[in-house]
Amino acid sequence: MPLQTFHNLSSQRKKAILVVAYEEFAFSTYQAASVSNIVKKLEIAKGSFYRYFKNKADLYAFLIENAYQMRREQLDGLLENESLGFFEIIRENFRNKIIFDLEHSLESIFLFNAMMESNAPEVKPIIDELKREVLLFVSSLIVVFQKKGEINSRVSPTVASQFIFQTQLGIYEYLSVFKGINFKESVQVGRLFPLSEEEIMTIVDEMLMIIKSGLKKS
Q1: pLDDT of residue 192
Q2: Among 17, 65, 106, 148, which is least packed by CB within 10 angstroms?
Q3: Cβ distance 49 to 34 under 8 Å?
Q4: Could you give the CA distance from residue 98 to residue 21 in angstroms, rounded to a whole number?
Q5: For domain 57-213, which architecture applies?
Q6: Which of 121, 101, 104 is nearest to 172 (CA)?
Q7: Domain chopping of the chain, boundaries
Q8: 73 CB contacts (<8 Å, ≥6 apart)?
Q9: Which regions of the chain are under pLDDT 70?
Q10: How many angstroms separate the CA atoms of 12 and 192, rounded?
Q11: Residue 160: how many CA atoms within 13 Å on its side-chain side?
Q12: What residues contact 10, with CB distance under 8 A and at least 6 apart?
C-alpha cells in the first residue's frame, strides 16, 4: 500500500500518478511493466517513486484495491434497492460493469488483465485474494436469496459464485472471439465498445438465462 508521502500529495498529483501507472499495467503484463517507464512519463526521479511505494508489487496491489473499490461502490448501490431479486441484481451489475468500462476504461482493462495474470509469483497472492473476496461476496449474496426462496437451496453457494464470476469474465472473451473486439486497441483509440449497450445486454440476457435455467430441457 502507498507510503505516507504518497498520501501527502495533492489529489491532482495522485491522480496523475495513478493514470500513468494504470496505463503501464493495462497494456503490459506485470513482468513486462516497468517502474522506469512510469517515472519517465511522470518526469520524476526513480528515487521519488520509492518514496511513494515500496516496490512495483506494492503499487500493483494498490491499483487493484483502488479499481476494485470503485466497482464495489456500484454494486453496493444496487444492494440498497431491496426490491431487486437476485437475477435482477446480477443483470444490473453486468450493465453497471459496461458503464464502468466506458467511464473508467484504463481501470477496467487493468482489472481484466489482473484476473488473467498468472505468470508473476510476486502478484499471484494479490490476485488470488481479490478473486477470493469477490467469490465470498457473491457466495454470501446467494445464501441470502436461498433463504428468501429465490435460489435452489441444494445449490452450492461457492460453486455458483464461481460460475457467475466466470460468466462475467466470459462475456468479454465472447465479445473478443465472436465480435472481434480488441479491448486494448479500443481503449487506445478512445472507444471501448463498438457495440451498443443494447446489443451487449442481449448477450448478457442469454448468458443469464443459462445461469437461471441451466442447459437441461425442462
Answers
A1: 61
A2: 148
A3: no
A4: 22
A5: Orthogonal Bundle (1.10)
A6: 101
A7: 57-213
A8: none
A9: 184, 187-193, 215-218
A10: 25
A11: 25
A12: none
